[in-house]
Design brief:
single chain; alpha+beta; 2 domains; six-stranded antiparallel beta sheet; 9 helices; 10 strands
C-alpha cells in the first residue's frame, strides 16, 4: 500500500488476497487507514489483545501511530477489501469518531446498503486518481468524504437510521418530483405503512409526508435562489402539478410567495456583493 502524504491527503486502492496475506508496520503510519471488507475476513493484532476481526459487517479505521499487524484471518480463505490512507481535513475528524474496538483501532458496524455506498464512493476515488483527472486529488477527497458520511449514518454516537428507512429516504431524494405516499414508500422499504410511519416519526422526529414536503420546499428555495426558472417549472420539478397549489404551500412554509422569496434573496445577494466592492475605510 502507498501511504498518503500530507499533500495528497487521500490514497485509495483495492486488495484481493489469499489466506497467507499479512502486513506488519511496527511503527504504524502518520495517517489514518480505512479498511472496508467486501468478502472474506481480515484480522488486526495488537500486543496483549485478542485479534480484532473485520468482516463485511464492519468498517475499520486505524489511527496514526498505531502499530500495524493485519492480514487475512486464519479461518478465512481470503480477504477482499478496499482501503484508503487519509490525512483528514479538520472537519473529517468528527466523521471518524467511531467506537474504539482496541487501542488505536475504531470500528463501525454497517449493513449491506451502507457498505455498498461506501465501496461505491471509494471506487470513484480510485478511478479519479487512476484517470489522472485535473484536480484528481480533490475528486478523490470528495468521494472519500462521501464514504465517511455514509459511515457516519451508522455511528452509534449519533442517530442511526434503520436501513429500510434509509432506503426510503434515498428513494425520496432520487425521485422528489414523483407522487409519493406512505403506502408507495412502504413498498420501497419493504415495510408495512404503519411500521414505516412509526420509524419515520421515531427517527426523523416528524411524519414521513411532512419530511417529503420539507425536502421539496428546501429544493424549491434553492432553485428560486440560484436559477431563473419560472415558478411553474420549479413546481413541476419538485412534484407539484398545480403551480397555484405549490405557491400556497410555499407561502405556508416561508411566509412568502415564491416570487417574493426570489426577489428578497436576490436583493440580499446584491447587498452582499455591493458590500464586498465597497472600499475599506479607516486608518
Amino acid at each position: 500500500m502507498t501511504i498518503a502524504s500530507a499533500h495528497d491527503r487521500v490514497v485509495c486502492g483495492e486488495l484481493d488476497e489469499g489466506s497467507t496475506y499479512r502486513t506488519v508496520r511496527s511503527g504504524g503510519t502518520t495517517d489514518w487507514v480505512l479498511f472496508v471488507t467486501l468478502a472474506g475476513r481480515g484480522r488486526f493484532r495488537l500486543p496483549g489483545h485478542p485479534d480484532l476481526l473485520a468482516g463485511p459487517d464492519r468498517i475499520t479505521a486505524v489511527e496514526p501511530g498505531t502499530p500495524h499487524d493485519y492480514g487475512t484471518d486464519h479461518e478465512a480463505s481470503g480477504w477482499s477489501l478496499r482501503w484508503a490512507h487519509l490525512n483528514p481535513r479538520p472537519d473529517w475528524l468528527s466523521l471518524l469518531d467511531w467506537p474504539t474496538a482496541a487501542p488505536g483501532i475504531r470500528q463501525v458496524e454497517v449493513d449491506d446498503t451502507v457498505r455498498a455506498r461506501v465501496v461505491q464512493a471509494l471506487d470513484r476515488a480510485i478511478s479519479a486518481r487512476r484517470a489522472g483527472l485535473r484536480r484528481s486529488t480533490l475528486f478523490a477527497m470528495n468521494a472519500v468524504e462521501e464514504a465517511l458520511l455514509w459511515c457516519d449514518t451508522r455511528n452509534p454516537g449519533g442517530t442511526v437510521l434503520d436501513p429500510r428507512l434509509l432506503t426510503v429516504l434515498e428513494h425520496i431524494g432520487d425521485t422528489i418530483e414523483e407522487p409519493h405516499s406512505v403506502d408507495s414508500l412502504a413498498r420501497i422499504g419493504g415495510l408495512s405503512p404503519s411500521r414505516l410511519a412509526h420509524l419515520a416519526s421515531a427517527q426523523l422526529g416528524t411524519g414521513l409526508m411532512s419530511y417529503v414536503d420539507r425536502q421539496r420546499m428546501d429544493l424549491a428555495r434553492q432553485l428560486l435562489m440560484v436559477t431563473d426558472l419560472p415558478v411553474a417549472t420549479i413546481a413541476a420539478r419538485i412534484g407539484f402539478t398545480d403551480p397555484l397549489y405549490f405557491s400556497r404551500r410555499f407561502r405556508v412554509a416561508t411566509s412568502l410567495s415564491p416570487t417574493a422569496f426570489r426577489l428578497r434573496e436576490r436583493g440580499r445577494t446584491e447587498e452582499r456583493q455591493a458590500e464586498g466592492r465597497s472600499p475599506c475605510t479607516g486608518s
